Amino acid sequence: ISNSMFSQNTNHSGGAIYAYKVIFLQYYNCFFINNLVNKFGGAIRTYRTKYITGIKSVFLNNWAHSNGAAFSIFDSIDITINSSIFYGNKYDVIDSYDGKSFMVGYSTFRNNTLDFYGGVRIFKSTLAVVHTSVFATNNAKYIGVLNFMKVDNSSIINSHFMNNYATTYGGGMFLFEATV
After folding, report:
1. CB 85 within 8 A of CB 63
2. pLDDT-derived band of residue 141, with 50, 70 and 90 as boundaries?
3. What distance in Å separates the CA atoms of residue 34 and residue 137, rounded to the nearest whole number?
4. pLDDT value at position 91?
5. By 3-state DSSP, what share of the chain in percent is helix, strand and coil, each rounded to 5?
6. In degrees, to the nearest 5, what angle opens at C-alpha 171 toward C-alphas 55 and 147?
7. How many CB atoms lie within 10 A of CB 177?
8. pLDDT at position 176, please?
9. Percent of the chain having pLDDT more than 70?
10. If 0-12 CB within 10 Å is exposed, 13-18 middle and 19+ buried, where does residue 167 land?
11. Dihedral angle at the C-alpha atoms of 69, 80, 105, 67, nearest 10 degrees?
């Protein structure tokens, strides 16, 4: 999927795209704006989609009532998100559950309102890497902007965390049973 815009779509899960048991999902230079769901993945929801690559895309003002305002991922092997902007989304921006490898690089997360877990939540993963990214002025009700929970091997490299807020744990980062 390239050079496309998904705007003002609504659904139960996956406001713009729902990928169910897809082998490979790639999107490039796409805009996801004002998408809304009642459950998972305001813009994109994947379920057992094995390989996911997103490059040079913008996620603006998407909303999910449960998890992943921009992206909700369940049971994937390899997830790579590069050179993307996440701005003004409501609820956890990216929520990845039970994946093998997760990487975000050269991306910006700014002015997102995070209802519970924070901006990027990686739960039960073998590898998680965040590099050369900016997390700024995000506001969370409970846990901060970057969360590694039950991650076997993780790295945060050359990234900038500034003016993030969480009411309970780690405005910038929360680590739980994670190796960093």
Report:
1. no
2. confident
3. 20
4. 85
5. 0, 60, 40
6. 50
7. 10
8. 93
9. 99
10. exposed
11. 20
